[in-house]
Amino acid sequence: MNLCINDFEGPLDLLLHLVKTAKMDIYEIDTKYIIDRYLEFIDSLDRNDLDNASEYLVMASELIHLKSRLLLNLDDSSDDESEFSINSEEDLKNKLIEYEKYQNITDMFRQLEEKRSEFFTKVPENLKDFIEVDNHLEGNLDPDLLKDALVELQKRMNYQKPLNTKITRKEVSVEERKIYIRNYLEKRKNVKFVDLFEDYTKEMVVVTFLSILDMCKNREIILNQKELFGDILIEKV
């Protein structure tokens, strides 16, 4: 848990603030002056705050120990096994210098984080999925090929054996069939010839065949066959 007292995040933060307030260089600080200011600040705090932040009191004991050594003019190496971590002015300066380095780096990272929040990244995608493919058909068929396709369709019809048959009479004119084909081509760019049939009755095949011939003659559609005996594709002009 990080405790903050009067906007100071720990004793080193407070000491560094006192140094900057006194407009001192860390390498040339008046140690006794800084210690006195620190202790005055600690004395001014509410005792409840100090109970929750013992690290401030630990640093106060360190500084009192250092001040006593300075007043007694004890040599830095006279107490090698001291329980205190700050036994000289040099120890205090080094701690403040190291803390200031960490503080500067933290400020730099905070600025970089704020700048980075202004940018948004996106994972690269394959744009081929968004490209509209134009499968434009070139008219390369003649009525003879369409006739062969009709013969092939007739062969397929011969293999169909419905389980239940019901004889109904439904007359479909060539004009009605042409309207159906036009509407069908409006929904799709190109269709197979065999896809135009809902059922393979003789009447429907003949009417559809005549309708396609008439539309092809009037240049309403284009017929295309990529390979011999392959599917015939129909595209609206």
Number of domains: 2
* Physical arrangement of strands within the biggest beta sheet: 1-3-2
- CATH-defined superfamily of the largest domain: Structural maintenance of chromosome 1. Chain E
Please count the beta strands (DSSP E, at least 2 residues each).
3
The top-level CATH class of the largest domain is Mainly Alpha
Q: Termini distance? A: 76 Å
Question: Strand fraction band?
Answer: 5-15%
Helical content stands at 40-55%
Radius of gyration: 47 Å
Are there runs of 5+ residues with pLDDT below 50, and where?
A: none
Order of helices and strands: HHHHHHHEHEE
- How many separate helices? 8
Largest sheet features: 3 strands, antiparallel
Summed over residues and divided by their number, the pLDDT gives a mean of 77
Shape: rod-shaped
CATH architecture field of the largest domain: Orthogonal Bundle
Question: And the CATH topology of the largest domain?
Answer: Arc Repressor Mutant, subunit A
> How would you classify the helix and strand content by structural class?
mainly alpha
Write a structural description:
There is one protein chain. The protein is mainly α. It folds into 2 domains: 11-116, no CATH class; 130-236, Structural maintenance of chromosome 1. Chain E (Arc Repressor Mutant, subunit A, Orthogonal Bundle). Helix content is 53%, strand content 5%. It contains 8 helices and 3 strands; from the N terminus they run αααααααβαββ. A 3-stranded antiparallel sheet has the order 1-3-2. A hairpin with a 6-residue loop joins strand 2 (221-225) and strand 3. Helix 1 (11-21) crosses helix 2 (31-44) and helix 2 packs antiparallel against helix 4 (54-72). The radius of gyration is 47 Å and the shape is rod-shaped.
